[in-house]
Amino acid sequence: MADQDTARQAEPPLLSIVVPVYRSEATLGQLHQRVSQSLDEAGISFELIFVEDCGGDGSWSVIECLIAGDPRVKGIQFTRNFGQHAATICGLSRSQGTWAVTLDDDLEHPPEKIPALLEHAAQGHDIVYGIYPTRSHRWWRNLTSRIGKVLFKIAIPSLSDKYTSFRLIRGDIARGITVFDSPFPFVDGYLAWLTNRVGSVEVPHLARQSGASNYNFRKLLAHTFNIFVTFSDLPLRLASWLGIATFLFSLVLIAYVLYGRITGLIEVSGFASIMAALAFFGGIQLLVLGVFGEYLGRMNFKSSRKPLFLVREAAGIWEQR
What is the value of pTM for the model shown? Predict the structure, then answer.
């Protein structure tokens, strides 16, 4: 009997549930209960991976208690706060399931809908997003989210416009995103590069059970800026086009100044030569800076070598290996 239990533990589960955790000690117990109940009733084998992102509360102690009571629960604690996307990628890198699901820790994502995502994936999708008809966030958060999605779509044309952090991902693709090397990660941007076989299922966006969102306007703005700089060379291209436009404008201005000097419209001595020189060399400088920016952008994609995360402690079935 013991050998059979060991064999079952050695077999990879169908699902790996990855939950980035930040100041959520009040909701983790209920989240574990709902995940276990819904998947056990559906007969789906799973592992539940909590990645504690050093929020400073008692979340890690709660995770350790859950591990002690359920061998399917695993925990990872970071050395410091690295962010939600880094925590998600870390959990996916340690996952073993045929499929992986990412869930928020605040109970806004209904675990009961995971079987529906899995059922939809059977139609040939590599990724299935749980999308919301309506969101429970405040109006400004919903507005900035819509604006961010439009901007991200411009930066990453292959990005699905229905992406959310409630995702079902084919296991090999989920673990494949760990090969991307950038200090500013964006999970959905990586996934958009790896596959375009994406589906979606409507799910309710539930109210947050405890506390407030950890994303404020400053963090959202910084995240948007980092995505543009890391995933898109659009700002550099705009600088290049601005340089070209300025250069062409300088040529027109030079022609006008020379015409004015010849026809007597400009009578100030030295004005024509000074304005022509400033316009011409200013345009040349912007053009050259734009070209340099193109090369610096490509160097930036290659030279970002900072570690995405660093694990302080891992607990659960990993300790038995």
Answer: 0.73
